[in-house]
Amino acid sequence: MNSNRDTKIHGNQKRKTVEQRRQDILEAGLKIFAKKGYNGSTTAEIARAAGVAEGTIFRHFPTKKDLLIAVLEPKVLEGLIQLDKEHVGDTPTEFFRCFLWNRLGLIKENDALIRLMFAEAQYHSEVREALFKGVLGQGISIIRPWFEKGVERGDFKDLPFLPTMRSFMGMVMFYGLFGHVMLGLSPERTMDEAAGNILDLFLHGLAR
Fold first, then answer.
1. Which CATH superfamily is domain 2-61 in?
2. Which residues have a Cβ under 8 Å from the Cβ of 36 and sit 6 or more positions away?
3. Considering only CA atoms, which of 60, 50, 55, 52 is closest in space to residue 24?
4. Which residue, among 181, 38, 179, 39, has the nearest Cα to 117 in the 3D structure?
5. In the chain, which residues fall in CATH 1.10.10.60?
6. How many angstroms separate the CA atoms of 101 and 86, rounded?
7. Are 69 and 134 in contact (CB under 8 A)?
8. Is 156 left (phi over 0), alpha (psi -120 to 50) or beta?
């Protein structure tokens, strides 16, 4: 019985390109990780969902951690990379408004995956290190020049970048992850309205 199954998998693999098989693995990994978490997921289960042999996963991703990072990276970074290209002529304030809207949309569309990312980073040091060196590190390298440009123009105060961005993203994450659960905390009708309110509060504070 297993022999027939292995033969079927092998036949499916031969009909697909290497990149197609890689994408199948990533899509299966996304579903399984989001549903069961990092510890609760196995490469054998992901392989079954992707329709490949388990060994095929390890030809693409040496470890389960590498697979998790590969699942998260495009979700977190692709929109940000595109945003950076499309808004090259914007002022820093305009860019941060678009960035905020983009991240709120990302969280709304990938709620379970974003929760997974932060949960696994909290409990697994190897995942946390990979995330910060890879996914989040690349994101920081895109955002930092916009912040520094805002400081140079006099739009922003000359504050330390990382603590400032931690506060900014804290506001975004709280709204994005909890706002739709605690409905009384998110009365805005649209993400544009939410992004405007968050950005205005962050840039100008409560003081008159």
1. Homeodomain-like (1.10.10.60)
2. 45
3. 50
4. 38
5. 2-61
6. 14
7. yes
8. beta
Which pTM does this prediction carry?
Answer: 0.76
d(CA 166, CA 109): 22
Total length of the chain: 208
CATH class held by domain 65-204: mainly alpha
User: Helix H segments across the chain?
Assistant: 2-15, 18-40, 43-50, 54-60, 64-86, 92-109, 111-123, 125-133, 135-153, 161-178, 191-204
Measured CA to CA, the distance from residue 100 to residue 29 in angstroms comes to 27
Q: CA-to-CA distance for 184 and 189, rounded, in angstroms?
A: 12
Per-residue pLDDT of the chain (208 residues; tens, 9 = 90+): 455 555 555 555 456 788 899 999 999 998 998 888 888 899 999 999 999 999 999 999 999 989 988 988 888 888 999 999 999 999 999 999 999 988 888 888 887 777 778 777 888 787 788 788 778 888 999 999 999 999 999 999 999 999 999 999 888 888 877 765 555 666 667 778 888 888 888 888 887 7
